[in-house]
Design brief:
alpha+beta, 60s Ribosomal Protein L30, Chain: A, five-stranded mixed sheet, two-stranded antiparallel sheet, 7 strands, 30% helix, 28% strand, RutC-like_sf, Endoribo_LPSP/chorism_mut-like, Enamine deaminase RidA (YjgF/YER057c/UK114 family)
Length: 155
């Protein structure tokens, strides 16, 4: 039976996928004490990376917000794989969003809201987090967005 968090996701029409395997020499999640560190997650769906390109050079903020939401879905899939149950999350402590963007693009926070809004919708107050939204020249596989997370685990 799904817990409260997955029930909220289901109400939103979201089913968590199987977590994506690491693409290089790292692990997708590391637990240290009561903290869980989730490696950067790309907007990967069943067909691969769903949004490539650069903000400020053809990729829309709206499309990138949806991609950031998919990154957050993949973060939660990794957390569920590491913890067995998303109800074990005490707090989403911090998200870091990376946005492939031109030097003059300044709406990275709007893009990363796609991930932040979903965390709050899924976890309620426990989903409110500190955050960074960083513009970068390029991301792996040409992705437009990447999101990583730091999560506190309930004891």
């Amino acid at each position: 039976m799904a817990g409260e968090v997955e029930a909220r996701l289901s109400e939103l029409g979201i089913t968590l996928p199987e977590p994506v395997a690491a693409a290089a020499n790292y692990v997708p999640a590391v637990r240290s004490g009561n903290m869980l560190y989730i490696s950067g997650q790309l907007p990967i769906g069943p067909g691969g990376v769903t949004l490539t390109g650069t903000l400020g050079a053809g990729v829309s903020v709206e499309d990138a917000q949806k991609a950031a939401q998919l990154c957050a879905i993949n973060v939660m899939a990794q957390a569920r794989a590491a913890l067995g149950d998303l109800d074990k999350v005490a707090r989403v402590v911090k998200l870091v969003g990376f946005v492939a963007s031109t030097p003059d693009f300044g709406d990275q926070p709007k893009v990363v809201n796609g991930a932040s809004d979903l965390m709050v919708a899924a976890f309620g107050e426990k989903g409110r987090h500190a955050r960074s939204a960083v513009g970068v020249a390029a991301l792996p596989f040409g992705a437009a967005v990447e999101v990583e997370a730091i999560i506190e685990i309930a004891s």
